[in-house]
Structure formats: structure tokens, C-alpha cells
């Protein structure tokens, strides 16, 4: 998971301050470990592996029974059934926990599902954090979901009407590259400054402009 040091957090906050010197736009950033727990996919994988294991182990029942007879003095056929059940449960449990490893999660969860959950979580934060409630509708949220390695950029109505979506995509691609290359703070800071330059033309900073949103990156737990 992505972790930002205090120095990196300060760098991002400073970039927001610098960008907002040129524009009345309000730039907010947020980082979350993952937008959903994806437990259903992890459980599904574990059950499938467990079923495959049970079929394989059942095909070896005669060899397994001979082994148990040598291992146990008072062997009973119930021991074989118990071994089937216990070992299958153990396999399912192990696979389920292994599926929680981010690398495996990214392999088993469909990309569309990940993108959908990141969009939902970004919209939720956009509304709850106040980014979508600035005075002139000039809030921007750069939302980063670490597990999915996805970035969602949301612009309020005042900005969305003025700036072409393709320009936002360029900024999203820059931050995404920062996630994958391990240079999130640098790329995010660059993206924030680009946002400021992009907004300066249509939303110049007014003399009575006030800072409506916190400049620090919000690090969400869930």
C-alpha cells in the first residue's frame, strides 16, 4: 500500500497552495488504501480452489487411506472423512487470506469492478468533504485508490463546463504513472500545479478569494 512521509505530505500541500495562488479553483487531494474490500471475489477464489483440491484429494482416497492406516493405530473410516473436511476447509482458509494480498487482489478482481468502486468512493468523498460545495462550484478532487492503482479526478459544475475532459485525463495519467513508478508525491505535485495553470485562464484568483478547503492531502482509512 502507498505510504506518504511527512515530507511528501508537506510537498503536496505546498503544491496546492502554489497552484491556488493563480486561480479561484479549490484543489483537494485524497488517498485511500482501497475503495472496497472485494471480499466476494476473494471468497469465490478460495471456494473454487477448495473444490478443485477436494476433487484431487478424493481421487487419491485409496493412497490417503493407506497412509492414515500406517499413521494411526486405531484407524477408522471416519478419520478419512474428517481429513477430507478439515484439509479442504484449511485450503479454503489459506487461499482466502492469500487472496487479500494486493497483488493477488488485482489479478482476481475484474477491472470494471475496481473502476466502478473507485468512482463510487470518489463521489462519496467529493460530497462528504465539501469539495462539491464550494461557493462558485470550483472544487476539484484528485482521488487516489492505492490497491486499484487508479485515480479519479472530479470537477464541480463550474469547472466541468469550461475544461475539456481530455485535459483532465492527461493529469490522471500523470498521477497514475506516479503510483506505478513509486514517485506519487512528485507526480501528484506536478499534476496539482498543472491544474492551477489549467484553471488560471477561466478562473483567475480574485482579490477577495478565500481558501475554502484544506490544502493537506486527506489520508482515508476506508
What can you see in these coordinates?
By secondary structure, the protein is an alpha/beta fold. It folds into 2 domains: 6-36 and 110-219, Diaminopimelate Epimerase, Chain A, domain 1 (Roll), CATH 3.10.310.50; 39-107. 59% of the residues lie in helices and 10% in strands. Strands 3-2-1-4 form a 4-stranded mixed β-sheet, with helices on both faces.
Beta-strand percent range:
5-15%
Tell me the total number of β-strands.
4
The description of the largest β-sheet is: 4 strands, mixed
So what's the overall shape?
rod-shaped
What is the CATH topology classification name of the largest domain?
Diaminopimelate Epimerase, Chain A, domain 1
- Which class of secondary structure composition applies to the elements? alpha/beta
Features:
single chain; 10% strand; Diaminopimelate Epimerase, Chain A, domain 1; alpha/beta; four-stranded mixed β-sheet; 222 residues
Concise synopsis of the structure shown:
With 222 residues, the protein is α/β, with parallel strands linked by helices. The protein has nine helices and four strands; from the N terminus they run αβαααααββαααβ. It has helices spanning 6-19, 39-59, 61-71, 77-98, 102-108, 111-128, 157-160, 165-181, 184-200; strands spanning 26-32, 139-145, 150-155, 218-219.
Amino acid at each position: 500500500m502507498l505510504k506518504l512521509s511527512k515530507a511528501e505530505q508537506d510537498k503536496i500541500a505546498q503544491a496546492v497552495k502554489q497552484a491556488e495562488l493563480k486561480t479561484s479553483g479549490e484543489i483537494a487531494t485524497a488517498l485511500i488504501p482501497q475503495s472496497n474490500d472485494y471480499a466476494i471475489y476473494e471468497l469465490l477464489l478460495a471456494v473454487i480452489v477448495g473444490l478443485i483440491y477436494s476433487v484431487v484429494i478424493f481421487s487419491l482416497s485409496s493412497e490417503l487411506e493407506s497412509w492414515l492406516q500406517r499413521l494411526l493405530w486405531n484407524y477408522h473410516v471416519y478419520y478419512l472423512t474428517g481429513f477430507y473436511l478439515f484439509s479442504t476447509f484449511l485450503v479454503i482458509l489459506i487461499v482466502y487470506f492469500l487472496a487479500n494480498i494486493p497483488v493477488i487482489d488485482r489479478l482476481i478482481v475484474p477491472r470494471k469492478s475496481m473502476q466502478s468502486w473507485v468512482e463510487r468512493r470518489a463521489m462519496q468523498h467529493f460530497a462528504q468533504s465539501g469539495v462539491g460545495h464550494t461557493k462558485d462550484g470550483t472544487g476539484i478532487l484528485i482521488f487516489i485508490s492505492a490497491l486499484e492503482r487508479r485515480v479519479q479526478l472530479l470537477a464541480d459544475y463550474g469547472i466541468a463546463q469550461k475544461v475539456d475532459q481530455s485535459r483532465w485525463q492527461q493529469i490522471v495519467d500523470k498521477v497514475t504513472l506516479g503510483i506505478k513508478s513509486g514517485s506519487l508525491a512528485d507526480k501528484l505535485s506536478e499534476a496539482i500545479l498543472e491544474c492551477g495553470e489549467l484553471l488560471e485562464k477561466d478562473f483567475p484568483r480574485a482579490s477577495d478569494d478565500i481558501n475554502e478547503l484544506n490544502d493537506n492531502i486527506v489520508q482515508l482509512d476506508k
